[in-house]
Amino acid sequence: MWGLGICSRNSYPSVGMKRKLGPKGQVVIPKDIRDKLSLTEGTILDFEVEDDAIVVKPEPSPEEFVERFLSVKGKKLRKRVDWKSVLDDEYKVTGR
Fold first, then answer.
1. CATH number (domain holding residue 56)
2. 8: which DSSP letter?
3. Which of 11, 19, 44, 70 has its CA 20 to 30 A from that of 56?
4. Total domains, the chain
5. Are 42 and 58 in contact (CB under 8 A)?
6. What's the rounded Cα separation, in Å, for the pair 27 and 7?
7. Phi, psi angle pair for 8, to nearest 5°
């Protein structure tokens, strides 16, 4: 059975709302959820599969992305990373 989890940075998954999948694979997100997450027409959504669930998240704004990126703390890299090779390898593996 497939589940649908709608998550936001500051909310818990919403449960208990069911929608029927349309002939083209379309699903209408309930208005309560759209309002809670400030989703408007044209909002880009990211889809991920986790185990047997579909996770849908609003794409972060460029400002939010940079803020999250800069907030990551960890060890500094000891050697230079060839990001082009890393990305090329990622695209080969996922078949994008």
1. 2.10.260.10
2. -
3. 70
4. 1
5. no
6. 16
7. -130, 165
Host domain of residue 46: 3-94
DSSP letter, residue 31: H
Q: Report how far residue 59's alpha carbon sits from residue 62's, in angstroms, rounded to the nearest whole number.
A: 9
Q: Which tokens belong to 91?
A: 């695209």
Residues 78 and 40: their CA atoms lie apart, in Å, by 43
Which residue type does 70 have? Answer: L
Interval 37-85: pLDDT, tens: 889 999 999 899 999 999 998 888 888 888 887 787 766 666 777 878 8
Query: Is residue 64 within 8 Å of 70, Cβ to Cβ?
Result: no
Q: Mean pLDDT throughout 20-42?
A: 92
Average pLDDT over residues 18-30: 92
Residue 24 DSSP SS3: coil
